[in-house]
Amino acid sequence: MKIHEYQAKALFARYGVPIPKGEVAGNVAEVLAAAEQVGYPCVVKAQVHVGGRGKAGGVKLAADADQARAAGQAILGMDIKGLTVERVLVEEAVDIRAEYYLGITLDRANQRNVLIVSAAGGIDIEEVAAKTPEKVIRSGIDPAFGLLPHQISSALYAAGIAPEAIRQASGFVAALDRAYREIDASLAEINPLVLTGDGRVIAADAKINIDDNALFRHQDLAALSEDAEDDPIEAEAHRRGLQYVRLRSENIGGARPAVGVIGNGAGLVMGTLDEVTRVGRGHGVGPANFLDVGGGAKAEVVRNALEVVLSNPDVEGVFINIFGGITRCDEVAKGIIEAAGSLDIHVPLVVRLTGTNDVAGKQILAEHGGYEPFTEFTPAAAKIVELVGATG
Ligand code: GDP
Ligand code: MN
Predict the structure, then answer these.
(1) Cβ–ligand 1 contact at 44 (below 6 Å)
(2) Is the CB of residue 192 below 6 angstroms from any atom belonging to ligand 1?
(3) Is 189 a catalytic residue?
(4) Could you tell me the pLDDT band of residue 81, with boundaries at 50, 70 and 90?
(5) Whose CA is nearest to atom 20 of ligand 1?
(6) 69 Cα to the center of ligand 2, angstroms
(7) At residue 219, does pLDDT exceed 90?
(8) What is the pLDDT, as a whole number, of residue 392?
């Protein structure tokens, strides 16, 4: 789960990390009131769940009320990588002498957490790592011993952090490490960590991703999740208890995400996405979503799934791929017929049914909906691609 910068900063502050004075604002009047509180010069920062806000124009300095108003007007409502800015963080501006990067994240390949430090902060760390890997110091954290004090100072020196900033920066790393473990984070990052003109060290940006599987241990943090869903269709799907991921053109090699996909079992759904992508390639179309109705899905679940998939305006056709095991094909068929009765299904629907009670399922679909379900997967995938490919 992603949280906003202002929320991450509030969390870090609990661990003793110094952060600039700041307030959140949702409109221009609130921006001005917040700026009065924190004082000028201040910085107005878009609160959206993506990095690179600075580059996108979502971070602006303001020396006075006129500039704060202009910054608020420019940033509120701005679109950053497909997300609309609804709130900004107004903070006292810090006087930047140097910008560093500090982060702790999971290193899957080495099966441990890793401390990452760089003196080339303020910009995208992936970019620094790609262009100048020698500027990024990585220090694996042995799970048996935790992050050791000598390890912290070695990493900071190796990264070339200014000697006068090392003691303060060590405190940041220790706090980051405690926060990372106690919050069950998968990423805790400060970029930039700023060395100010007068020799103070302060967190100018903060990012925390929380492991969703640990959220049950953090009731207070789970409350932030209302805010964490960026896509309204995904949010609605999750409210209905469905495993749904929306796919966009950039996720499927630039094709049109036109085929809504519903299946039972994550493996089958992933296989379905692959097959739709493969046969769709020649037609410029691909899958619009992942949706797993799970094992033993009842008619109601199938109806819900169809409703969610159809609420995506990109969808030009739906492919329902069911391999009946615990899931009974007749239940799935009932769900489709119920959905067809109550929803306006304005796009082609291709159903592949096989396995438990498939004969009964096919009969229900033929009698009540005039649908002719497929038994085999490959021709069914080809059919839905042909239907939506022809309309595009
Ligand atoms: P990001 O681009 O989404 O990572 O947003 P950041 O919060 O990291 O801000 C981007 C850049 O804006 C920073 O690297 C700084 O160069 C600049 N910036 C942010 N806050 C301040 C500030 O208080 N004073 C100054 N002078 N620059 C700032
Ligand atoms: Mn940043």
Answers:
(1) no
(2) yes
(3) yes
(4) confident
(5) 204
(6) 23
(7) no
(8) 54
Probe target for ligand 1 pocket from 59, 91, 94, 97, with the most ligand atoms within 8 Å of CB: 59
For the segment 293-304, the average pLDDT, to the nearest whole number, is 86
Q: Looking at beta carbons, which pairs linking 19-22 to residues 24 or more positions away fall under 8 Å?
A: 19/202, 19/203, 19/206, 20/91, 20/92, 20/93, 20/94, 20/202, 20/203, 20/204, 21/91, 21/92, 22/89, 22/90, 22/91, 22/92
Query: Which ligand sits nearest to residue 58's alpha carbon?
Result: 1
pLDDT average, residue stretch 172-184: 97
Would residue 376 show up in a list of annotated catalytic residues for this protein?
no
Confidence of residue 50 (pLDDT cuts 50, 70, 90): confident
Query: 243-277 burial by CB neighbour count: b if 16+ within 10 A, else e?
Result: ebebbeeebbeebbbbbbbbbbbeebbebbbebbb
Global pTM?
A: 0.73
